[in-house]
Amino acid sequence: MKKLLVVTLCIYFTFLGCNVNKDVSSKLEKSDALVDYFADNGFGNAVALVQHPSGVYHKGITYIAYQGSLEDPYVASYNHETKEWKGPFKAGVSEMGKDPNRKKKIDNHGKPALLIDDADYIHIAFGGHGGMRKHGENPLGNHAYGKNLHVVSKKPLDISAWETQDNISLFGTYSQFIKMDNGDMYLFYRHGAHRSDWVYQKSTDNGATFQEPVSFLKHKRRTEVEAEDSWYPWVSRGNGDEIIVAFDYHICRDKKNPQDTRGHIPERHNVYYMVFDTKTGAWKNVKNERLKMPLTKEIADENTLVKNIANDWTFQGVTDVDSNGNPQVIMLVGPDVGERRSGPKRIQHFRWDGQAWVKSLTDNLPRGDGDLEVKSAKEVSIYLESKNNKNVGEISRWDSFDGGASFKKSKVFLRRKKSGFVISSLIENPHPDARIIVAEKKKGTDYRKMYLLGDNGPIKRNVKEAEVLKN
Ligand code: ZN
User: Fold this and answer.
1) Residue 9 falls within a domain, yes or no?
2) Distance 279 CA to ligand 1 centre (A)
3) How confident is the model at residue 261 (pLDDT cuts 50, 70, 90)?
């Protein structure tokens, strides 16, 4: 009873106190308060798995790139020792996101990929969706929009000033940057719109110059159906000199048939995997057999298939290897629901056991995008975004200790009501406090709060610094 009285009095005085000091305390809170996002000017799908890396940890600092206001690339950094945030600074100007008359207001294809070269200059590739007719003939495919650009920081590890370089193909889209141990830089991208080859350009001088684009996935006319072969790869570092690729196939149908009300749809199938040995220039399948490049649908089906998925649709493969070079692949898989938009998809996990691809039997992973971290053949984590049926968005990590046979949710990094999230790929060489970048989607606005998440949740920032749109 006595206890109850004390509690009641406490609540009463707290209530009084709140009333009396309301103005003062809220002012204090506003100026000093920490928020769990670092910027509020993310725009559209501000980050994604495909354009990557979006973040790199280097010499004590995490560098982050994302699509901000007007689809321009923004860069921020966080010093893990001093706890100091910098930016976001606008790193360049995209040709997309500026035309109010364009039917598709936010294009989203030109999100930035970020790389730090061996001389500590920071590189961003962004702004492309295949180029436009005004840019001239695309020798490796077709056009859509935008112009792929390459910008470099004016000073080493300084994100405040940038210079545009005219040394990559403007027809690029879905930029993916990789640096090898010897400093060689590779920029992978699709050389145009859907009906285009996927290529890479290599630089051996810290991005001052790039060699001509080299095709590795070939777009090709089909003969038995009115369609073209098209591809969606996700490219990453393997072990040593190797680059690894997970990909799926897009049957890019013609829109000619008036009876076919669906016309062109984002129909994607199958899971594939291959390896690029950058030392020899040879491409190989998982069995170490040499592939004839650029890869056609026929060669891919015969030599590089992880899983044939003919009925369900696929989306966004990701891959990683263990120290023995045995890869694991995840792919979103789900039914085609009969509309232009495809149905909900769930991650499927595949592991090469040295002899064959083993498909995980787990069916408890939530629907949503994810990235994969392979620590060993047995120990695997998936970082993913998901949304439950109560409209609660969540970023979580799911661990497996049996090579992907089963997964268990081990950690929730962020959870928000009435929100959904889009996620980046895992940050390159990450500090444990900063593993992934996410943008929070809310109804009624195209702007996104941006979060940097690690093992301790979001890295906080002063509210005044984080409110970029007001400043
Ligand atoms: Zn298409």
Assistant:
1) yes
2) 33
3) low
